Amino acid sequence: MSEERAGFPPGQAVDLTNCDREPIHLLGRVQSYGALLALSSDWLVQHASANLVDILGIDADAAAGRPLSELVSAEGFARIRDNLRGAEIRDAATRLFGVELRGGRSFDVSLHQSGRHLMVEFEPKRVARSRDMLAEVYPQIAGLRRDRDLATLARDAARGLQAFCGFDSVMVYQFQPDASGKVIAESRLDGQSRYGGLMFPASDIPVQARALYKRSLLRLIADVADEGSPVLPGVTLDGRPLDLSLAVTRAVSPIHVEYLKNMGVEASMSVSIMKEGELWGLFACHHDSPRYIDYERRTAIEMFAHMFSYELIRFEDAQRKKSESDASRLQTMLMAQMADGRNLAESLMAVSEEIGNVIPHDGIVLFENETFHARGRTPTEEEFRSLSRFLDRSIGSGVYAADRLGALHEPARDHARRCAGILAIPVSKRPRDYLVLCRREMRETVDWAGEPSKPVEVGPNGTRLTPRRSFEVWTETVEGRSAPWTGEEQHTAELLRVVLLEIFLKITDAANMERKRAQERQQLLISELNHRVRNILNLMRGLLAQSKNSARTLEEFTENLDGRIQALARAHDQLTAEHWEPASLRALIQCEFEAYASCASRVEIEGGDALVEPNAYTTMALVLHELATNSVKYGALREEAGKVHVRMEPAPGGALRLSWTERGGPPVRAPERRGFGTMIIENSVPHELKGEAEVDYRVTGLEARFLLPAAAVASVEGGAMPPGGTAAAAALSEIALSGTGLVLEDTLIIALDAAGILEEMGADEVKIFASVKAALGFLEGSAVDFAVLDVNLGEEQSVAVAERLAASGTPFVLATGYGAAPELIAAYPPCVVVQKPFSSSSLRTAMARAFAAGK
């Protein structure tokens, strides 16, 4: 039969020339209970084991060159041929039970591909089966109690497998994270426990052997004393040894045989326990006398191991579900704590006991925004800051567990008694914050099956490996180590990390983003203020020239210039005002044009008035200033015949419509470059107020229409005049002072200006001070009747002086250029605030209010 027909792709045998790394392939022999034939692609026997006479009744030399069909009955050969497709799968074997040879004897057959060869293994059928093997497996699986713990599940599995295979001893051997192994369950016919709970070093099952256990899931050694039968010839035509990794009858390494003899074992069977594609552990079966398990029962045992793996996964899934339930409960408790107004640190510390019920620990640390919070047995703040730097370098975005922290971070050895192990949960990326659970040092004794660090000795098989000779219990005292963090605990911690990340992103990261947005707004404000200041400086130059040309006296020049500066100041105060009473939109429009004396008469405002909310007032101040400035520079007000028509009218639902129409100016063209000012006009109302804005650059003049939503408008028409309106200001400004006044201001020119206004209002004397210390020193021995205090005095603020005046009931006015910011108002006693630059009228009004508030 051709290679193509057989379905085998061309290939080469595995290179096993490095025998020191793969000593198991040096044997080239099979155990005596089975025979092996290696067939080339043309179905001629190329290799055979030397025990063919005993097993198959034929001579190995006579078998060479003969087709398989001459050895196996026609029916058996047809079964083999029909099942070859399964042998094509990598690391898989096809199993056939009860295949007859030409002589009429029945055999169990295993087929698998090894490079260019088809391996055919025969084991005599010794006992006829009266019962299905799988029927014997299911009751053992059904008896597993997966609702307890891992130890109970493993113990039940060991008992079930022992009942099924009949070995004297069956152990469940679990690989540990450091590749060592631990016997977590043992079932013996004598009822004793010989290896239960003992540890075995990683060197007992080296990396190569573990890799083989992943490929070949069951390995039987029916008789440790069996020398086996060599495979003849021992190499292929090109001098390479056969790869017998998947051969079920293959003899094992003599080193492993020596290891078993040292244990006093005469038969052994190892069954791999796989979990999610990785080697989780082994069923290790030992017998005090030779014991053969036929191939059909071994296949059922493999099925038992597969089903145990499935039950193991189900058990761990149940543990994960419990972890998820615990994490969900913690999330609910955390959110309840934070709903009461507590921050993240307070909330976590409040539920630390509940966290301890889910993940036992001795101390908890929250390191948030460079702030240290701790409870229980933990490192000190200084020690933890060093540890946090280690964590920054060592871990990624997931949970980090260590039960020997001192071995990884040397400074941690100093606090091992308080914290020898940690479970670190990162809760943010920038800045890197952590929730860390700490466990104290747990000095314990670990029992090993022989000394784990025993040096290598020269043995009968050379210096490559020497199996241990003693399996007496060797006790090791472990220090500087905490109780290990289990997989379930780490999984729960990972779920908790997700919960904390969600909370952190909603709260902490939201605060960071808010700070970022505040910085962006500040930068935008700085840019805008810079833009405004430059415009104001240019405008001031024009105002000075215009006022000088039109004024007849120095007093008239000063009065006109002062009034126009105040008109600009009132409009630009809105840029920094965060909390403001509803104010008149008509007054704001008039304010914008009062600075342009020659243009104000050509601005017509129609319709009623509206009181606009503070945030909308700030936005509209920017929009109207841009419209007014552009009209004067480029629009209708640039020409003497040009006019601006502004109309305000109510809209449905409490909204307000405002239209701006320019006529009589030069022809208008849409701007070729959309500058910052154009963006403010077109986008401020839609973006900031969620209203509407429409701008048309018509040849006859600019037309703009705005819709302010009801949320931005306090009232339309009929609304009361805003505080500080014309009538109220006129009434309040009629005040006469008497007595001694105090001015606290670090800029001399402003201080002299304030003192002069107070003297115009009737003050007998005004004392001027530039520092808090000087003002308080004066107030120690003297009294004043009223005062004007600047907020910012270089590196200090005037709060102490304000508190002294408030305590004595002295009226005072707070002068500031910051606007009525809430944090500013909160820092001072209740007082009246006047915005800089103040004028005679604004200071008179503020002082009148201060006296009125004190009555």
Task: Give the SSE map.
Elements: H1 3-6, E1 29-30, E2 35-39, E3 45-49, H2 52-55, H3 60-63, H4 74-82, E4 94-100, E5 106-114, E6 117-124, H5 133-142, H6 150-165, E7 169-175, E8 181-188, E9 199-200, H7 207-215, E10 218-221, E11 229-232, H8 254-263, E12 267-275, E13 278-287, H9 295-339, H10 344-350, H11 352-358, E14 363-368, E15 371-376, H12 381-394, E16 400-402, H13 405-408, E17 421-426, E18 434-439, E19 444-449, E20 473-478, H14 487-506, H15 508-550, H16 554-572, E21 583-584, H17 585-594, E22 603-607, E23 610-612, H18 614-633, E24 643-651, E25 655-663, H19 676-689, E26 692-698, E27 701-708, E28 713-716, H20 726-732, E29 740-744, H21 748-760, E30 765-769, H22 772-781, E31 786-790, E32 792-793, E33 796-797, H23 799-808, E34 812-816, H24 822-827, E35 832-835, H25 840-854
Parallel strand pairs: 22-24, 29-30, 29-31, 31-34, 34-35
Antiparallel strand pairs: 1-11, 2-3, 2-6, 3-11, 4-5, 5-6, 7-8, 7-13, 8-9, 10-12, 12-13, 14-15, 14-18, 16-17, 17-18, 19-20, 21-23, 23-28, 24-25, 25-27, 26-27, 32-33
Give a verbal description of the structure:
- The protein is of the alpha+beta class and 855 residues long.
- The chain has 5 domains: 3-124, 2-Layer Sandwich (Beta-Lactamase), CATH 3.30.450; 133-317, GAF domain (Beta-Lactamase, 2-Layer Sandwich); 342-455 and 465-506, PHY domain (Beta-Lactamase), CATH 3.30.450.270; 513-716, Heat Shock Protein 90, CATH 3.30.565; 726-854, Rossmann fold, CATH 3.40.50.2300.
- Helices cover 39% and strands 23% of the residues.
- It has a 7-stranded antiparallel sheet, with helices on one face. A 6-stranded antiparallel sheet has the order 9-8-7-13-12-10.
- Helix 15 runs antiparallel to helix 16.
- The longest helix is centred in the middle third of the chain and has 45 residues, at 295-339.
- The model is unreliable at 1-27, 461-465, 574-580 and 718-733 (pLDDT under 50).
